[in-house]
Structures are given as C-alpha cells and as structure tokens.
C-alpha cells in the first residue's frame, strides 16, 4: 500500500448529510460519487470500510416550508429524504448506513454529546439580540445587508432578542490550530488547510448552540432545559459519530474516529472549527482528515433556477445510465477543484472515452478471441506487463490521494495503449500466417482488459462487472455494447 492512509485496518468515510429542504441536485451526486468511489476502492484493497451518508432534517427552514405546505415537518423530511436516498441508490452508492437526524437513536446520541460538553463547563447562557435571516437560519450583520435586505435571500431580516446557549469554541482555538499544523488533523487539499488557518488566525469565536423552543420547535431538545432546542451545529455535525452508534448501539463505534469526512467548501469552517472543538470538549477522538472538494457549475455558470441551468441528476441517470454519470463526475471534475457540467462535454466523453476507447476495446477483443480461438483465451507473454504495472501504480496513487481524475486517466491510458497495440499488431493479418504471434497478442489483450476491469470497478462498477462477465473467465462471451449510442 502506498499513500497517506497506509497501515490502517479500518477505513471510515462520510459525506456531508444533505439538508432536506429541497430535492437533491447534481452537487449531491458529485459528493456521493466521489465518496463512493473512494469507499469501493479501499474495500477492494482489503480494508474494513464503513461508509456513512444521510440527511440533515431539522431546522427553521423545514419548519417554515412545512407550515406553508400545511404538512408536518416530518412529512416534508420524509419526502425529500426519500428523494435523496433514491438518488444514492440510483448512483449505486455502497453506503453501510444512511442516517436521518430525525431518528431517535441520533437524538439520544446528540443529547449525550451535549451533556459531555456541558459537564466540561463549555456552555454558557447569553441574551442575544440581533438581526436574523430565516433563509440563512442565522443572525446577520448590519454591514452585510444590501439595502436592508439579506444579500442571499433578498428578504429583510427580523429583529430578535432571545436566550441562547453558547459554546466556548474560543477556548479551543489554540488546540485546533496545533492539531492542524502538526498534521494530526489533516485538512486536504493543502490550499484549504492554508485557507482555514488564515481564517482562524485571530482565534475562533464562541457559537450560539441553541434557540428558544418558541422559535425553533423542529429539533432536538437541550437536556435539562425543555425551553431550548439545539441549533444545527450540535445536531447535524454529531451525525458522524451517532451514525456509528455513539450513545446507542455501539457495535459500529469501533470505526470511530473517522478516517475522512468528505465535504464541500461552503461548510469547511464548521467542520474544521466547530466540530473539532465539540469533539475536544466532549473528550472524543478527532477525525484523521477532512477533505474539501470543489463545486460544480452548469455550462460554465453557477446553477440557479432563474438561469434555467439546473442539472437534475435523475434526468441524466435515466437517459445515459449510472456509469456515464459517475464517470463524467469523477473524470471531469478534479476532487480538489471546481468543475463544470457541460452537455457537450458530457456527450464527447461518453462517445470518445466510454464508447470508443473502453467499450470498443472490450468488444473487439472478445470478438477476436471468439473468432480466432473459439472463445478460449490463449496464453500471453510479459511484453505488456510493465506498462500495466505502471498505470496500475498511477491509478493507486491517484485513488489514495483522492485524485480520482488522475486515477481514471491512468485507466484510460491503459485502454488507449491497448487499442494502439491492436493497430500495431493487426491480429487479422497475424491470423493469416502467424498463429503463434496471434495467440500471444490476444492473450495480452485479454490480460489488459481484465486489469482495466479491476481499475474501473470503484469508478463504474456496473461496467466493470460486464467486462468481467465478458472476458474474465476461460471462455469469453461477446456481450452487448457497453455504451450504446444514445440520441
Ligand atoms: Zn439570508
């Protein structure tokens, strides 16, 4: 094994939990697919993997939207959590557990964490007065308003005065900085580590952790104070540990601490600051790494309803199939950076890489083994072994450093080289008067296709299974085209 996760038996990876105020979008599909490819890869490498995903279901926004629709908050949560889970399943996410924060075991675990932080003396009460934007679910500052309106929601904030419990996050600024600088807590990629350290240069501020029940009903009650409900932080962030059983059935708690939380850049500060401070206060082990992925735009622009460029992942899945979408997201959007969803680019990648380079190679090789050897795979030699090893190593390096795009490029190169090998050796000519050479060349091509299937398994599992079915055994079968042309 190579890379920075070497020598660890278990491997626990989580995605952020999706907020159920709306159905899922392509950004969810990106994060799900990245996490799934990594989980599948480590599972394949023999690790004991635990992969957690789920939904964040409480909060004012859900409460309000449900009220407007005349339904109970749980009904709205059920509806959208169902859609998010359906997307996960369509994308063939291999999660071990799907957590919903409205579930009882989660609420119990959250209350236990709250109590631990409270026992450590890290909560205090404070009257808070300020301007509150319901859209943001947060207090906003006068200076950030544009013409008296919240710039994100174009709505005037409300004046609110209320009692909150505050978490003394400021007490942990130095400790958090130390863990990050020493690398004990990895913030990846490196640019994000720098960004976070510079953000917290002057220390972290205390954070409001609860709201009065009369404002926020839809949430977890604060232990020992029935008039207060937990605000998003303690409730949502704790899912990473309640999801493996903290405070309840502890069978899976052996997976804690998480090896990596995969999250979007918009929630970096909460994860690297608040969540780490909470764990320290509660006396719990810290995650080993937080990996911050980029965002996805649509046709070069930020997705928005008004621009009409919102990409519905379900629509893409229906039309092109699961592996086309998985491949595009993982191949086209570097894990550490932003990337774009472009219909034109999608079609090019589908046609050139999936259908022509990978699909045709496998079908062509299977058909030639069928034709020249009655489907019985001949013996190859070692002439392509070096090249295979080289690309496999690049693939592994890519996956283990989460550069999935780099890993896929290695697999793609292997397929391209195999196609070139066919052109150089021209099996159809060898078949005329060089039967021995033909045997070796076809044996080598089958070997490459099998290696390719292994590399593609965490990326496009369905296609990998089809390749193995076609060419994995002693007797090849010419299957259907892997990526048929689609109008
Ligand atoms: Zn707002």
What does this structure look like?
By secondary structure, this protein is α/β, with parallel strands linked by helices. The protein has helices spanning 26-44, 60-69, 73-90, 104-119, 173-182, 190-199, 232-237, 239-242, 268-282, 313-320, 322-332, 343-373, 385-400, 404-425, 427-433, 435-456, 461-471; strands spanning 10-15, 18-19, 48-56, 97-100, 123-133, 138-140, 158-167, 186-188, 207-208, 210-212, 221-222, 225-230, 260-264, 289-293, 296-298, 339-341. It has two domains: 10-293, HUPs (Rossmann fold); 348-471, Orthogonal Bundle (Isoleucyl-tRNA Synthetase, Domain 1), CATH 1.10.730.10. The strands form four sheets. Strands 1, 2, 3, 4, 8, 13 and 14 form a seven-stranded parallel sheet that branches. It starts with 9 loop residues before the first strand and ends in a 16-residue tail after the last helix. The protein binds zinc ion. Zinc ion binds at residues 133, 135-136, 150, 152-153.
Q: Residue-averaged pLDDT, rounded?
A: 95
CATH topology (fold) name of the largest domain: Rossmann fold
Whole-number radius of gyration? 26 Å
Strand percentage? 15-25%
Helix segment tally: 17
- The secondary-structure class comes to alpha/beta
Shape: elongated
- Give the bound compounds: zinc ion
